[in-house]
Protein 1
Amino acid sequence: MMQETEKKSFLPLGSVVILTGSVKKLFIVSRGSIVENKFYDYGALLYPEGMIDTNIAYFNHDDILKVVHEGYSDTDDQLILEILNDAYMRARTGEQADPATVRIGNVAMAASVSVTPPDTATAPIVDDPFASVRDLGDDDE
Protein backbone atom coordinates (compact mmCIF):
# COMPACT_ATOMS: atom_id res chain seq x y z
CA MET A 1 0.00 0.00 0.00
CA MET A 2 1.29 3.49 -0.83
CA GLN A 3 2.45 5.62 2.09
CA GLU A 4 1.07 9.16 2.44
CA THR A 5 4.49 10.63 1.56
CA GLU A 6 5.01 8.48 -1.54
CA LYS A 7 4.25 9.98 -4.91
CA LYS A 8 2.23 8.19 -7.53
CA SER A 9 3.85 7.99 -10.94
CA PHE A 10 1.90 8.92 -14.05
CA LEU A 11 2.80 8.36 -17.69
CA PRO A 12 3.00 11.54 -19.78
CA LEU A 13 0.12 12.60 -21.98
CA GLY A 14 0.48 11.12 -25.45
CA SER A 15 1.66 7.76 -24.14
CA VAL A 16 0.30 4.72 -25.97
CA VAL A 17 -0.53 1.65 -23.88
CA ILE A 18 -2.14 -1.77 -24.09
CA LEU A 19 -4.31 -2.83 -21.15
CA THR A 20 -4.34 -6.27 -19.59
CA GLY A 21 -6.83 -8.49 -21.43
CA SER A 22 -6.83 -6.29 -24.55
CA VAL A 23 -5.00 -6.12 -27.86
CA LYS A 24 -6.17 -2.62 -28.75
CA LYS A 25 -3.84 0.35 -28.16
CA LEU A 26 -5.02 3.39 -26.20
CA PHE A 27 -3.65 6.95 -26.41
CA ILE A 28 -3.55 8.72 -23.02
CA VAL A 29 -5.29 12.13 -23.15
CA SER A 30 -6.02 12.84 -19.48
CA ARG A 31 -4.64 12.04 -16.05
CA GLY A 32 -6.18 12.16 -12.60
CA SER A 33 -9.85 12.06 -13.60
CA ILE A 34 -12.64 11.58 -11.08
CA VAL A 35 -15.60 9.78 -12.66
CA GLU A 36 -18.64 8.82 -10.58
CA ASN A 37 -16.66 9.61 -7.40
CA LYS A 38 -13.82 7.26 -8.35
CA PHE A 39 -10.25 8.43 -9.09
CA TYR A 40 -8.73 7.11 -12.32
CA ASP A 41 -5.08 7.54 -13.23
CA TYR A 42 -5.77 7.89 -16.95
CA GLY A 43 -8.33 8.67 -19.60
CA ALA A 44 -7.56 7.45 -23.11
CA LEU A 45 -8.83 7.27 -26.66
CA LEU A 46 -8.52 4.42 -29.12
CA TYR A 47 -5.31 4.46 -31.13
CA PRO A 48 -5.10 5.16 -34.06
CA GLU A 49 -8.79 6.07 -34.35
CA GLY A 50 -8.72 8.94 -31.85
CA MET A 51 -11.91 10.47 -30.55
CA ILE A 52 -15.06 8.71 -31.71
CA ASP A 53 -18.09 10.42 -30.21
CA THR A 54 -17.19 11.24 -26.61
CA ASN A 55 -16.00 7.77 -25.58
CA ILE A 56 -13.04 7.88 -23.20
CA ALA A 57 -11.67 4.79 -21.47
CA TYR A 58 -10.74 5.38 -17.80
CA PHE A 59 -8.24 3.07 -16.11
CA ASN A 60 -5.47 2.90 -13.55
CA HIS A 61 -1.75 2.30 -13.91
CA ASP A 62 -2.12 -1.28 -12.62
CA ASP A 63 -4.36 -2.07 -15.61
CA ILE A 64 -1.52 -1.42 -18.09
CA LEU A 65 0.02 -4.54 -19.62
CA LYS A 66 2.49 -2.76 -21.91
CA VAL A 67 3.67 0.80 -22.59
CA VAL A 68 4.06 0.94 -26.38
CA HIS A 69 5.22 4.57 -26.46
CA GLU A 70 5.94 7.05 -23.69
CA GLY A 71 4.75 10.60 -24.37
CA TYR A 72 6.67 13.85 -24.05
CA SER A 73 7.57 15.16 -20.59
CA ASP A 74 9.25 18.42 -19.55
CA THR A 75 9.41 20.68 -16.50
CA ASP A 76 5.80 21.81 -17.05
CA ASP A 77 4.73 18.17 -16.93
CA GLN A 78 6.66 17.68 -13.68
CA LEU A 79 4.75 20.62 -12.17
CA ILE A 80 1.43 19.06 -13.18
CA LEU A 81 2.53 15.77 -11.61
CA GLU A 82 2.75 17.59 -8.26
CA ILE A 83 -0.83 18.78 -8.71
CA LEU A 84 -1.96 15.28 -9.76
CA ASN A 85 -0.34 13.73 -6.71
CA ASP A 86 -2.10 16.24 -4.46
CA ALA A 87 -5.43 15.43 -6.13
CA TYR A 88 -4.77 11.71 -5.78
CA MET A 89 -4.02 12.03 -2.05
CA ARG A 90 -7.19 14.10 -1.58
CA ALA A 91 -9.24 11.47 -3.43
CA ARG A 92 -7.78 8.71 -1.23
CA THR A 93 -8.54 10.56 1.99
CA GLY A 94 -11.89 11.96 0.88
CA GLU A 95 -10.68 15.53 1.54
CA GLN A 96 -12.52 18.15 -0.48
CA ALA A 97 -10.32 20.57 -2.39
CA ASP A 98 -11.09 24.25 -2.61
CA PRO A 99 -11.88 24.66 -6.34
CA ALA A 100 -10.28 28.13 -6.31
CA THR A 101 -6.85 26.77 -5.36
CA VAL A 102 -4.45 24.08 -6.39
CA ARG A 103 -1.65 22.67 -4.27
CA ILE A 104 1.92 22.24 -5.38
CA GLY A 105 3.73 20.42 -2.62
CA ASN A 106 2.74 22.24 0.56
CA VAL A 107 2.00 25.51 -1.25
CA ALA A 108 -1.56 26.47 -2.18
CA MET A 109 -1.81 28.60 -5.31
CA ALA A 110 -4.75 30.38 -6.91
CA ALA A 111 -6.06 28.38 -9.82
CA SER A 112 -5.22 30.03 -13.13
CA VAL A 113 -8.11 28.43 -14.98
CA SER A 114 -11.80 28.59 -14.18
CA VAL A 115 -13.13 25.37 -12.66
CA THR A 116 -16.68 25.96 -13.88
CA PRO A 117 -17.40 27.53 -17.24
CA PRO A 118 -18.63 31.10 -16.95
CA ASP A 119 -22.12 32.09 -18.00
CA THR A 120 -21.29 33.57 -21.39
CA ALA A 121 -24.36 35.81 -21.34
CA THR A 122 -23.23 37.71 -18.24
CA ALA A 123 -19.51 36.95 -17.91
CA PRO A 124 -17.03 39.70 -18.75
CA ILE A 125 -14.72 39.08 -21.69
CA VAL A 126 -11.32 37.91 -20.45
CA ASP A 127 -8.02 37.38 -22.20
CA ASP A 128 -7.58 34.01 -23.86
CA PRO A 129 -4.83 32.22 -21.86
CA PHE A 130 -3.89 30.19 -24.94
CA ALA A 131 -3.81 33.09 -27.40
CA SER A 132 -0.02 33.34 -27.34
CA VAL A 133 0.27 29.68 -28.28
CA ARG A 134 -2.27 29.92 -31.08
CA ASP A 135 -0.68 33.14 -32.32
CA LEU A 136 2.71 31.48 -32.87
CA GLY A 137 1.60 30.47 -36.34
CA ASP A 138 1.63 32.69 -39.39
CA ASP A 139 2.53 36.35 -38.72
CA ASP A 140 1.77 37.56 -42.27
CA GLU A 141 -1.21 39.71 -41.23
Protein 2
Amino acid sequence: MTLLADERSTEPLQQDSCAADVKTGLRAAILAKFRNVAAAQGKPLQPLTDNLVLLESGLDSLCFAIVVASLEDELGYDPFTEAEDVYFPVTFGDFVAFYERNR
Protein backbone atom coordinates (compact mmCIF):
# COMPACT_ATOMS: atom_id res chain seq x y z
CA MET A 1 0.00 0.00 0.00
CA THR A 2 1.42 3.38 -1.02
CA LEU A 3 1.35 6.28 1.42
CA LEU A 4 0.68 9.79 0.20
CA ALA A 5 1.11 13.11 1.98
CA ASP A 6 -2.01 15.14 2.57
CA GLU A 7 -1.53 18.83 1.69
CA ARG A 8 -3.52 19.88 4.76
CA SER A 9 -1.68 17.64 7.20
CA THR A 10 1.80 16.30 7.83
CA GLU A 11 0.43 12.80 8.39
CA PRO A 12 0.54 10.31 5.50
CA LEU A 13 -2.67 9.03 3.95
CA GLN A 14 -3.29 5.57 2.62
CA GLN A 15 -3.82 5.45 -1.14
CA ASP A 16 -7.07 3.51 -0.68
CA SER A 17 -8.61 6.43 1.21
CA CYS A 18 -7.57 8.79 -1.60
CA ALA A 19 -9.28 6.54 -4.15
CA ALA A 20 -12.41 6.55 -2.00
CA ASP A 21 -12.28 10.36 -1.81
CA VAL A 22 -12.00 10.59 -5.61
CA LYS A 23 -15.00 8.27 -6.03
CA THR A 24 -16.98 10.24 -3.45
CA GLY A 25 -16.08 13.48 -5.25
CA LEU A 26 -17.06 12.04 -8.61
CA ARG A 27 -20.38 10.80 -7.24
CA ALA A 28 -21.06 14.21 -5.69
CA ALA A 29 -20.27 15.94 -9.00
CA ILE A 30 -22.66 13.64 -10.86
CA LEU A 31 -25.41 14.10 -8.25
CA ALA A 32 -25.02 17.87 -8.45
CA LYS A 33 -25.08 17.83 -12.25
CA PHE A 34 -28.30 15.77 -12.35
CA ARG A 35 -29.95 18.14 -9.87
CA ASN A 36 -28.76 21.30 -11.64
CA VAL A 37 -29.87 20.11 -15.06
CA ALA A 38 -33.27 19.01 -13.73
CA ALA A 39 -33.78 22.41 -12.10
CA ALA A 40 -32.62 24.33 -15.19
CA GLN A 41 -34.92 22.30 -17.45
CA GLY A 42 -37.87 22.45 -15.05
CA LYS A 43 -38.00 18.67 -14.62
CA PRO A 44 -39.09 17.00 -11.38
CA LEU A 45 -36.25 14.70 -10.31
CA GLN A 46 -36.79 11.44 -8.44
CA PRO A 47 -34.50 10.67 -5.47
CA LEU A 48 -31.14 9.64 -6.93
CA THR A 49 -30.48 6.20 -5.51
CA ASP A 50 -28.22 3.57 -7.05
CA ASN A 51 -31.19 1.43 -8.12
CA LEU A 52 -33.16 4.29 -9.71
CA VAL A 53 -33.81 3.42 -13.37
CA LEU A 54 -32.59 6.38 -15.40
CA LEU A 55 -35.69 6.38 -17.60
CA GLU A 56 -37.75 6.87 -14.42
CA SER A 57 -35.56 9.68 -13.04
CA GLY A 58 -37.65 12.50 -14.49
CA LEU A 59 -34.99 13.55 -17.00
CA ASP A 60 -35.50 13.27 -20.74
CA SER A 61 -32.94 12.59 -23.48
CA LEU A 62 -32.06 16.29 -23.82
CA CYS A 63 -31.36 16.45 -20.08
CA PHE A 64 -29.09 13.41 -20.26
CA ALA A 65 -27.20 14.97 -23.19
CA ILE A 66 -26.74 18.14 -21.15
CA VAL A 67 -25.58 16.12 -18.11
CA VAL A 68 -22.98 14.22 -20.15
CA ALA A 69 -21.74 17.33 -21.99
CA SER A 70 -21.52 19.32 -18.75
CA LEU A 71 -19.69 16.51 -16.98
CA GLU A 72 -17.24 16.34 -19.88
CA ASP A 73 -16.55 20.07 -19.48
CA GLU A 74 -16.15 19.70 -15.71
CA LEU A 75 -14.23 16.41 -15.56
CA GLY A 76 -12.31 16.59 -18.81
CA TYR A 77 -13.51 13.29 -20.25
CA ASP A 78 -16.60 11.61 -21.71
CA PRO A 79 -16.64 7.86 -21.02
CA PHE A 80 -19.32 7.34 -23.66
CA THR A 81 -16.94 8.38 -26.45
CA GLU A 82 -13.79 7.00 -24.83
CA ALA A 83 -15.09 3.52 -23.89
CA GLU A 84 -14.28 0.70 -26.28
CA ASP A 85 -17.53 -1.15 -25.62
CA VAL A 86 -20.93 0.37 -26.33
CA TYR A 87 -22.70 0.53 -23.01
CA PHE A 88 -25.74 2.41 -21.82
CA PRO A 89 -26.22 2.54 -18.05
CA VAL A 90 -29.67 1.48 -16.88
CA THR A 91 -29.64 2.77 -13.30
CA PHE A 92 -28.13 5.79 -11.60
CA GLY A 93 -25.66 3.47 -9.87
CA ASP A 94 -24.65 2.07 -13.27
CA PHE A 95 -24.13 5.61 -14.54
CA VAL A 96 -21.83 6.54 -11.65
CA ALA A 97 -19.93 3.23 -11.91
CA PHE A 98 -19.46 3.78 -15.66
CA TYR A 99 -17.79 7.13 -14.98
CA GLU A 100 -15.65 5.57 -12.24
CA ARG A 101 -14.48 2.71 -14.48
CA ASN A 102 -13.68 4.88 -17.47
CA ARG A 103 -11.64 7.65 -15.88
Protein 3
Amino acid sequence: MRTKFAILVVVVIISSPNSGRTHASEAESSWASELAGTSWQLVKLQGPDDTTLVPANVKSKYTITFGRDGRVTTRVDCNRASSTWNSPSAGKLQFGSWSRTSVKCPAGSLHDRIVNEGANVSSYSIKDGHLFLSGMAAGGWYELEPLSAPKPRAPKRGR
Protein backbone atom coordinates (compact mmCIF):
# COMPACT_ATOMS: atom_id res chain seq x y z
CA MET A 1 0.00 0.00 0.00
CA ARG A 2 2.82 2.41 0.87
CA THR A 3 4.53 1.71 -2.44
CA LYS A 4 1.37 2.56 -4.39
CA PHE A 5 0.97 5.76 -2.37
CA ALA A 6 4.60 6.79 -2.98
CA ILE A 7 4.21 6.16 -6.71
CA LEU A 8 0.98 8.18 -6.72
CA VAL A 9 2.72 11.11 -4.97
CA VAL A 10 5.60 11.04 -7.48
CA VAL A 11 3.15 10.94 -10.42
CA VAL A 12 1.18 13.89 -8.99
CA ILE A 13 4.35 15.93 -8.47
CA ILE A 14 5.71 15.19 -11.95
CA SER A 15 2.42 15.95 -13.69
CA SER A 16 1.80 19.12 -11.69
CA PRO A 17 1.62 22.19 -13.97
CA ASN A 18 4.22 23.94 -11.81
CA SER A 19 6.76 21.13 -11.80
CA GLY A 20 9.85 22.06 -13.71
CA ARG A 21 8.91 25.75 -13.57
CA THR A 22 11.71 26.45 -11.12
CA HIS A 23 14.32 25.54 -13.71
CA ALA A 24 12.53 27.46 -16.48
CA SER A 25 12.07 30.46 -14.22
CA GLU A 26 15.74 30.46 -13.23
CA ALA A 27 16.85 30.25 -16.86
CA GLU A 28 14.28 32.85 -17.89
CA SER A 29 15.37 35.28 -15.20
CA SER A 30 19.04 34.90 -16.11
CA TRP A 31 18.55 36.18 -19.66
CA ALA A 32 15.73 38.61 -18.87
CA SER A 33 17.87 40.22 -16.19
CA GLU A 34 20.56 40.91 -18.80
CA LEU A 35 18.52 43.87 -20.04
CA ALA A 36 16.32 44.75 -17.06
CA GLY A 37 17.56 47.88 -15.36
CA THR A 38 20.17 48.70 -18.02
CA SER A 39 20.72 51.86 -20.07
CA TRP A 40 22.60 52.09 -23.35
CA GLN A 41 23.76 54.75 -25.81
CA LEU A 42 24.21 54.36 -29.55
CA VAL A 43 27.69 53.74 -30.89
CA LYS A 44 26.71 53.11 -34.50
CA LEU A 45 24.00 51.97 -36.86
CA GLN A 46 25.13 49.46 -39.47
CA GLY A 47 22.84 49.55 -42.50
CA PRO A 48 21.94 46.53 -44.64
CA ASP A 49 24.11 47.95 -47.44
CA ASP A 50 27.17 48.12 -45.12
CA THR A 51 26.66 51.85 -44.58
CA THR A 52 27.81 52.81 -41.10
CA LEU A 53 26.14 55.77 -39.41
CA VAL A 54 27.60 57.24 -36.23
CA PRO A 55 25.84 59.81 -34.03
CA ALA A 56 27.27 63.29 -34.57
CA ASN A 57 28.63 65.06 -31.51
CA VAL A 58 26.82 63.40 -28.60
CA LYS A 59 26.09 59.66 -28.39
CA SER A 60 23.84 60.23 -25.39
CA LYS A 61 21.26 61.79 -27.74
CA TYR A 62 20.38 58.21 -28.68
CA THR A 63 19.65 56.10 -25.62
CA ILE A 64 17.48 53.23 -24.50
CA THR A 65 16.65 52.18 -20.94
CA PHE A 66 15.09 48.81 -20.14
CA GLY A 67 13.14 49.15 -16.89
CA ARG A 68 12.81 46.29 -14.46
CA ASP A 69 9.05 46.88 -14.64
CA GLY A 70 8.75 45.94 -18.33
CA ARG A 71 8.79 49.57 -19.55
CA VAL A 72 11.34 50.91 -21.99
CA THR A 73 12.22 54.56 -22.58
CA THR A 74 14.30 56.02 -25.37
CA ARG A 75 15.80 59.27 -26.44
CA VAL A 76 16.12 59.59 -30.20
CA ASP A 77 17.90 62.90 -30.71
CA CYS A 78 15.31 65.61 -29.99
CA ASN A 79 12.45 63.22 -29.20
CA ARG A 80 11.58 60.79 -26.44
CA ALA A 81 9.56 57.59 -26.64
CA SER A 82 8.29 54.86 -24.36
CA SER A 83 6.77 51.43 -24.69
CA THR A 84 6.73 48.06 -23.02
CA TRP A 85 9.39 45.45 -23.60
CA ASN A 86 9.62 41.72 -23.17
CA SER A 87 12.22 39.09 -23.85
CA PRO A 88 10.24 35.85 -24.35
CA SER A 89 13.43 33.82 -24.78
CA ALA A 90 17.16 34.34 -24.81
CA GLY A 91 18.17 36.75 -27.56
CA LYS A 92 14.58 37.67 -28.48
CA LEU A 93 13.08 41.10 -27.93
CA GLN A 94 9.52 42.37 -28.29
CA PHE A 95 8.18 45.90 -27.92
CA GLY A 96 4.60 47.05 -27.45
CA SER A 97 3.05 50.12 -29.06
CA TRP A 98 5.26 53.19 -28.87
CA SER A 99 4.24 56.63 -27.70
CA ARG A 100 6.61 59.44 -28.61
CA THR A 101 7.06 63.13 -29.00
CA SER A 102 7.31 64.47 -32.55
CA VAL A 103 9.66 67.44 -32.59
CA LYS A 104 11.40 68.09 -35.91
CA CYS A 105 15.08 67.22 -35.42
CA PRO A 106 17.93 69.13 -37.09
CA ALA A 107 19.61 68.08 -40.33
CA GLY A 108 22.05 65.21 -39.89
CA SER A 109 19.96 63.56 -37.19
CA LEU A 110 19.57 59.77 -37.19
CA HIS A 111 16.06 60.28 -35.80
CA ASP A 112 14.00 59.38 -38.88
CA ARG A 113 16.00 56.28 -39.67
CA ILE A 114 15.86 54.99 -36.11
CA VAL A 115 12.14 55.70 -35.68
CA ASN A 116 11.27 54.02 -38.99
CA GLU A 117 13.36 50.89 -38.41
CA GLY A 118 14.01 50.70 -34.69
CA ALA A 119 10.53 49.59 -33.68
CA ASN A 120 11.09 46.41 -35.72
CA VAL A 121 14.04 45.24 -33.63
CA SER A 122 13.36 41.64 -32.65
CA SER A 123 16.63 40.24 -31.35
CA TYR A 124 19.58 41.21 -29.22
CA SER A 125 22.96 39.97 -28.09
CA ILE A 126 25.54 41.27 -25.67
CA LYS A 127 29.17 40.92 -26.77
CA ASP A 128 32.20 42.44 -25.10
CA GLY A 129 29.94 44.63 -22.96
CA HIS A 130 28.09 46.10 -25.96
CA LEU A 131 24.44 45.56 -26.84
CA PHE A 132 23.62 44.64 -30.43
CA LEU A 133 20.03 45.03 -31.64
CA SER A 134 18.88 43.55 -34.94
CA GLY A 135 15.90 42.19 -36.81
CA MET A 136 14.84 45.31 -38.68
CA ALA A 137 12.86 44.67 -41.88
CA ALA A 138 15.49 46.42 -44.00
CA GLY A 139 18.32 44.58 -42.23
CA GLY A 140 21.28 46.02 -40.39
CA TRP A 141 21.88 46.39 -36.67
CA TYR A 142 22.56 48.83 -33.86
CA GLU A 143 25.57 48.73 -31.57
CA LEU A 144 25.17 50.37 -28.17
CA GLU A 145 27.47 50.77 -25.19
CA PRO A 146 26.51 51.08 -21.54
CA LEU A 147 25.35 54.56 -20.65
CA SER A 148 27.50 55.81 -17.84
CA ALA A 149 25.66 57.52 -15.04
CA PRO A 150 26.28 61.25 -14.81
CA LYS A 151 28.81 62.15 -12.18
CA PRO A 152 27.26 63.83 -9.16
CA ARG A 153 28.07 67.48 -8.86
CA ALA A 154 29.99 68.70 -5.85
CA PRO A 155 27.77 70.73 -3.54
CA LYS A 156 28.22 74.48 -3.78
CA ARG A 157 29.87 76.01 -0.79
CA GLY A 158 28.33 79.07 0.75
CA ARG A 159 30.33 82.18 1.41
